[in-house]
Amino acid sequence: MRRARAIVTGRVQGVSYRAATASEARRIGVVGWVCNRDDGSVELEVEGDDDKVAALLAWCENGPPMARVTNVAVEERSPVRIETAFAITR
Active-site residue numbers? Predict the structure, then answer.
């Protein structure tokens, strides 16, 4: 079980990045959340099997078609094992 926090920078707001991330996370089968940050970046936390978390983080490197990702900064977290879905917040 792995949990990671990622800050995604570039053109990631106003391009359906959060919705696409949530859709991809649900397709992959991980839990967590995604939100816009005031600085124009997107933040997410994802939890699940190691390979599934890695798959979502790899997807985040490009995101949806209109996004232009310049960086994905990943920080490992301790799994919390309380979430049951992947949510869009803020």
Answer: 18, 36
